């Protein structure tokens, strides 16, 4: 997928709507047999066409999608459609008649809108309930029903990554994480993914990037094991330089600059690292901050010092509010108060990353209903500085309307992504699904275009 990233500033507001559409296909006759046309297998982020054929003209049918998560729990979505004069229904072309699970014409709606079988489709899931897929792939069973009668059924397999990628667990004293290399023998552009405050590398995302030709290091920068900092406090920026050096020396990595792709706090780390490290060829930040905030100690309490250091000295930061923690269903409130307007200009300027000094193209993604921190405003500070400095490299900021903080590659179910046991993320299943799909496609295109030029 090729996307144009103009080297000019601006926000691009993404409206929730159809995620892909396909032309009507197929025909029916009195002798036609109902059938579901869908690829038998695809990568988890592939948008596929689902077409039902051989139906009675102008009849109401229900498409049911079912899958099992890692624990064996069953998830389901249903949508009712009216067939056309030719007896076909193309999911990406037609809006569901009932709209209980999703409302727009959306080819992937049956997959991302699934919810636990026992859950009420009109109510939020209990905190902490989310679809965790099996390790390598999961199957989705599609059934066409009229009332209680099943007309036809088929299964499509969703692979989480290409099984031919190479996995290397890193065991050096200097770098902690896992590397994933694309199939084949050719050198590939290198990318380092930086997790957020959860402290765990996003291996699933790294595997998927490797499936698309990127040599990807899912780096861990705090938590177990030693010598990493135990918590998100005073993480040295030089550690990213060590990770870049490790990845650059691997035989499967092309001799070019390395891309940094960070989520949330990892997005801040990517932006900050790009201002101190020369060998950065591209920067991606998903729901990042262009302002450095205080670090976190155990139990997510403010650390009393910066999250990051440079040359052994804490990076200037804004303090966090004392968290309001409580048991489910009242998880912790955001720490990022008081508002930016209540912070003195001197302190805010000192804590703002001087991104104009970074010599790399930059792509930012933010969400207007982000409940962890105001990622749109915090990303705009980055864009404002790039505008003011007439930054020579391309940069772009996509703002996803009504989406929340919890973004990941499509098209896993998004029910449960609005909150967890102790965090509120915001958004809605539909808005988050659209943001996942669009931002992921643009991120892949941006990394491919930027690293190819570096």
From TrEMBL:
It comes from the Archaea. One of its GO terms (biological process) is fatty acid metabolic process. It holds the Pfam family BAAT_C. Residues 45-171 form the Acyl-CoA thioester hydrolase/bile acid-CoA amino acid N-acetyltransferase domain. This is Acyl-CoA thioester hydrolase/BAAT N-terminal region. The keyword Hydrolase applies. SUPFAM superfamilies: alpha/beta-Hydrolases. Keywords: Hydrolase. Residues 235-451 form the BAAT/Acyl-CoA thioester hydrolase C-terminal domain. GO terms for molecular function: fatty acyl-CoA hydrolase activity.
């Amino acid at each position: 997928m090729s996307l144009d990233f103009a080297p000019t500033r601006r926000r691009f507001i993404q409206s929730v709507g159809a995620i892909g559409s396909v032309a009507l296909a197929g025909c029916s006759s009195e002798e036609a047999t109902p059938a579901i046309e869908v690829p038998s297998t695809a990568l988890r982020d592939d948008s596929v066409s689902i077409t039902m054929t051989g139906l009675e003209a102008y009849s109401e049918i229900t498409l049911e999608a079912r899958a099992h998560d890692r624990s064996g729990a069953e998830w389901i979505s249903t949508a009712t459609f009216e067939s056309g004069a030719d007896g076909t229904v193309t999911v990406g072309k037609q809006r569901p008649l009932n709209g209980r699970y999703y409302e727009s014409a959306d080819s992937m709606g049956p997959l991302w809108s699934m919810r636990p079988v026992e859950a009420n489709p009109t109510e939020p899931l209990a905190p902490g309930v989310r679809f965790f897929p099996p390790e390598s792939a999961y199957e989705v069973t599609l059934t066409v029903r009229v009332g209680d009668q099943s007309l036809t059924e088929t299964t499509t397999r969703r692979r989480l990554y290409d099984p031919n990628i190479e996995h290397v667990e890193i065991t050096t004293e200097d770098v902690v994480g896992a590397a994933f290399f694309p199939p084949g023998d050719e050198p590939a552009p290198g990318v380092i993914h930086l997790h957020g405050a959860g402290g765990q590398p996003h291996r699933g995302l790294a595997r998927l990037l490797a499936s698309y030709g990127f040599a990807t290091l899912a780096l861990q920068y705090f938590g177990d094991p030693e010598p990493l900092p135990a918590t998100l406090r005073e993480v040295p920026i030089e550690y990213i330089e060590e990770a870049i050096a490790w990845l650059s020396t691997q035989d499967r990595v092309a001799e070019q600059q390395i891309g940094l792709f960070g989520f949330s706090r990892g997005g801040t780390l990517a932006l900050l690292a790009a201002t101190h490290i020369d060998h950065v060829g591209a920067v991606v930040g998903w729901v990042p901050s262009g302002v450095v905030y205080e670090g976190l100690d155990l139990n997510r309490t403010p650390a009393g010092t910066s999250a990051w250091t440079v040359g052994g000295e804490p990076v200037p930061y804004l303090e966090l509010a004392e968290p309001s923690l409580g048991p489910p269903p009242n998880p912790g409130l955001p720490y990022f108060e008081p508002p930016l307007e209540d912070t003195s200009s001197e302190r805010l300027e000192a804590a703002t990353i001087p991104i104009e000094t970074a010599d790399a193209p930059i792509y930012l993604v933010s969400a207007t209903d982000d409940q962890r921190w105001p990622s749109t405003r915090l990303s705009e500070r980055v864009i404002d500085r790039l505008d003011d400095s007439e930054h020579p490299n391309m940069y772009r900021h996509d703002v996803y309307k009504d989406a929340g903080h919890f973004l990941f590659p499509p098209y896993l179910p998004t029910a449960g992504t609005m909150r967890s046991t102790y965090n509120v993320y915001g958004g809605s299943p539909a808005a988050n699904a659209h943001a996942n799909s669009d931002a992921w496609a643009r991120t892949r295109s941006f990394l491919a275009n930027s690293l190819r030029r570096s």
